[in-house]
Amino acid sequence: xxxxxxxxxxxxxxxxxxxxxxxxxxxxxxxxxxxxxxxxxxxxxxxxxxxxxxxxxxxxxxxxxxxxxxxxxxxxxxxxxxxxxxxxxxxxxxxxxxxxxxxxxxxxxxxxxxxxxxxxxxxxxxxxxxxxxxxxxxxxxxxxxxxxxxxxxxxxxxxxxxxxxxxxxxxxxxxxxxxxxxxxxxxxxxxxxxxxxxxxxxxxxxxxxxxxxxxxxxxxxxxxxxxxxxxxxxxxxxxxxxxxxxxxxxxxxxxxxxxxxxxxxxxxxxxxxxxxxxxxxxxxxxxxxxxxxxxxxxxxxxxxxxxxxxxxxxxxxxxxxxxxxxxxxxxxxxxxxxxxxxxxxxxxxxxxxxxxxxxxxxxxxxxxxxxxxxxxxxxxxxxxxxxxxxxxxxxxxxxxx
Length: 401
Ligand SMILES: *Cc1c(COP(=O)(O)O)cnc(C)c1O
Known about the structure:
Elements: H1 3-13, E1 25-29, E2 32-35, E3 40-43, H2 46-49, H3 58-70, H4 81-94, E4 98-102, H5 105-124, E5 130-134, H6 143-147, H7 152-155, E6 165-168, H8 173-177, E7 184-190, E8 192-193, E9 199-200, H9 203-216, E10 219-223, E11 247-250, E12 261-265, H10 286-301, H11 304-325, E13 329-335, E14 338-343, H12 348-356, E15 359-360, E16 362-364, E17 368-371, H13 379-400
Parallel strand pairs: 3-15, 5-6, 5-7, 7-10, 10-11
Antiparallel strand pairs: 1-2, 2-3, 4-12, 8-9, 11-12, 13-14, 14-17, 16-17
Helix pairs in contact: 3-10, 4-10, 11-13, 12-13
The site of pyridoxal-5'-phosphate has 15 residues, from helix 5.
């Protein structure tokens, strides 16, 4: 089938919730993706921060194949070995005591919200708890997760949402403090905001929020779905701040392509949910947990964290020099291999110009291009990306003049 015909048919059958790029992806190798017609792309999006290990990691693929031939699914009425293996990895890496595996990031956020409400209910016997969330945050599209997402356009058409959510300004401690009262069950935020435009938490802010939570016996929920799993150069971004959450949410690179998320908690928060409170038919099945456990094994074997710390400064310098050379680039932010360039216009045309030249980039907020390469990226590919990005910015700026 011709590509145009294929896209037309796909558009008639898939629900129209995305404006997709006219590309039909077929397979990948390392840092590169290929369309069905063989067109090659350098990938600086990793499927929105998912494919941390790059494409075609043989040991990871073999671990999945091995599990497929044993058992895919058990339900949670029984134990399975991969689930314990993956749980041990998550607990060790996050410093949490217990974990619940989900099928997506949004579901992990749902679970974190349920822990917060149950914790408050256990403590007070009351059902009037509130949650403080952040402006410009993103926590997913299910009704609970979207209720704590700081973008009105994502929420409004679906109201009434879950109640008791108040929004503070990210990195403005006074705005959080002003919302605290006796009903505050939790504060939820991304340690490094992704979708909202690549905004890292300021150290004083996140430490201040931790202190407010301690003073009010409220839970600090850190959403590390995008910024976690090595992207910041530490396993989790909160480690860069010396701040421990009570609950942490994971997904995206946890499975490196297999749909698996998790919420993990420590102390009394880890004991809040009891039999009957929460469940999932698929959640934590042997297939996805074998994948997650192998992801952690690959991080060790391939020294992924050391590699991120080696190449991230090079990405930083490269983007700094681009920011210096183009006046339309008005800011450069980020940590590790999660960086963003902010433009003084919506950079959709730059993303399209880069795609034409064989480079996948993804936008964030209305005026940011984010850089989320697979964590195996090398300096050579950062140079390749920079060359195409420069050509693309020049083309779009020239067309505007
Ligand atoms: C992607 C994302 C989510 C939602 O994850 P899904 O798997 O798409 O449901 C939640 N929080 C953050 C920070 C994300 O980046």
